[in-house]
Amino acid sequence: MAAPAAGRRRRGVLGVLQGRRIGLGVSGGIAAYKAVELCSRLRRLGADVQVAMTRNACRLVTPLTFRAISGNPVITGMFREPRRWSVEHVEFARWAELIAVVPATANLIGKVASGIADDFLTTAIMAAKCRVLFAPSMNEAMYENPIVRANISRLKVHGYEFIEPEEGRLACGEFGRGRLPDTGEIVQRIVSILTVGGGRRDLEGVRVVVTAGPTREPIDPVRFLSNPSSGKMGFVVAEEAAERGAHVVLVSGPVSLPPPPGVRLVGVTTAREMYDAVMSELDSCDVLVKTAAVSDYRPESVSGRKIKKSDAPLTLRLVPNPDILREAGKRKGSRILVGFAAETENLVENASAKLREKNLDLIVVNDVSREGAGFGGDTNAAKIVDAAGAVIEVPLTTKRMLARLLLDKVAELLSAKGRSAGRPAGR
Ligand code: CTP
Description:
Layout: E1 21-26, H1 32-44, E2 48-53, H2 55-60, H3 63-70, H4 88-95, E3 98-104, H5 106-113, H6 120-127, E4 131-136, H7 140-144, H8 146-157, E5 161-162, E6 166-169, E7 175-179, H9 183-195, E8 207-212, E9 217-220, E10 223-225, H10 232-243, E11 247-252, E12 263-267, H11 271-282, E13 287-290, E14 297-299, E15 318-320, H12 324-330, E16 336-343, H13 347-357, E17 362-367, E18 379-386, E19 391-398, H14 399-416
Parallel strand pairs: 1-2, 1-3, 3-4, 4-5, 8-11, 8-13, 11-12, 13-16, 16-17
Antiparallel strand pairs: 6-7, 9-10, 14-15, 17-18, 18-19
This protein binds cytidine-5'-triphosphate (CTP).
C-alpha cells in the first residue's frame, strides 16, 4: 500500500496508523538515512514515532533530523537528558506497540541474538514484549555469513520478525543481496503488523487447539500412505494465536518445522492418533482449527514385514479413517470449529457443504490447483466462508497473513459469544 502524501490526504481523514505507537530503532548502517524517509511516512500515516539511535547511527545521520521529522526528542543513549520517561528503556519497550529496527546491522542482530544489552536500543529490545521487526542491511558477504544467518534464525525462532533485504547496488559498490527494501515495502509490513491482528491480545486466555501437517498410514514397516502437507499453515495459525494471548495446543502429524514458541506440541503419526489427541483436548478447548490434511483412508491391515516385490499386481484394501472434524462437530457445544478445505473446483459450494455437514463456524477453502496456494509453500490464496454464507476473499498472500485474518474472524465470533478477553494492543 502506498502511503498517502500529506498534501493529498483529505482533511479529517485519519491515517491507517493513527495513534499507533512505533519505536523506530536506527543502528549504524549506511542505510540509516533511509530511516528518515520511513519515519516521515509513518508520521504521515498518523503514527507516533519514537526514534532510538545507536552511537554509530548518530555518526551517519544527526539526531536533529529525526527529531524534526518525528516531532519527538530522539533517544541516543541510556543516560541522555532530557528524558521522555524516567526508566527510559523499560518505558520505551512498554510504550511501543512495535519496535522496527531499520536498518539492522549485523552487529545489532548479533548482540540481540546473544542476549547482549549494552546500549539503549539492545536493552529496550530485550525488555520488549511487543513485536520487533528487523530490517537487515549490510554487505552481501556479511549477510551470507553463516554466523549472521544463524543469529537471524535464532531470533526468528524466538518470534522476532525480519524483512528480507533486497538485491541491488550496495553502498560498498558491489552488487548483491543486502540492500534495505524499498521504504514502501517496510511501511506496508508495519501496517500489516499493526492493523491485522499484530500486536493485539484479543485471544487472551482463549484455549485453542490447532491440527497441522499430514497423517501417515502405515502399509508395512517401511512404507506409508500420506500427502505433501508441510504443516506450515497450522504452525503459523498456532504461533499467531499464541502471540495474541491464546493457550495453544498444536496437534501435528510428521513435519520438519520447529515448534512455535509458547505452544504445546503434541506429535502424532496416524489419523487415529490425531483423532485420539484431538478428542482428549476437545473438552477443554474453546476453538478448534483443523488445518491438518488427514488421510481419509488407511490400509485395512498393516504388514508386520516389508512387503516383497513380485511381478503380480498388489492390491491394498483401504478402510475409511474417522473424520475428526465431523466428530468434533457432533460434540461442538459452544466451541468455535474451523475447517480447511482443499478443493480444485466449485470452491465455495463444496466448502459450504463441508461447513454444514461438519457443523463448523468457518471454513477456509483453497484452490490447491492454483500456483502459490495450498500445500508446501509460504503463500496461500483462500476464501474464508462463514456459517451465514459470507465469503472473505483473501488474495495470494503469506500463510501468516491468512492466519491473522482467520484469527480476526475467530476473535469476532468469540466476542459475539461474549467470550473474548480482548485486551487492548501492546503486550
Ligand atoms: N478432516 C478431518 N478428518 C478427516 C478428514 C478431514 O478432521 N478424516 C478435516 C480436515 O482437517 C479439514 C476438513 O476436514 O479441516 C476438510 O478436509 P478435506 O480433506 O477438504 O475434506 P474431506 O471431508 O476429507 O472431503 P473430500 O476429501 O471428499 O473433499
